[in-house]
Amino acid sequence: MKTGAIGRFYVSAHAITRYIERVRPGIARSVALAELIRIGNGAEKLKTLEDGTELWRGPKKSPAPRLLFLVGPKSEGTLPVMRTVPVRKKQNPSPNNYMARRREARRISFCSRHLADSPTAEVA
Nearest Cα to 33, choosing from 61, 10, 3? Predict the structure, then answer.
């Protein structure tokens, strides 16, 4: 069965729309499709979810580095379907992060030393 698709996955219209909306606003659909095909070809599978959908991650060197996307199971004789591009949340470092704790300790130490030496810190 010929699908006209190139690459590892059939890219759904929904995935193209979400990619443009969430990652690369303002680009043409044909450019977005070409980028998703390139990203899909260099992607690695991270895990399979309970419903059979797979979570994949794109390569570092791409228009959208480390892009996450969901892939549905393949149908009879066709390619697996790249369903959507989920929202990528920006997360702050964990409070247990060693470097974050160290930076905070240095900031507090710096402030306490310099505030104690300033003339405005003296109270009459």
Answer: 10
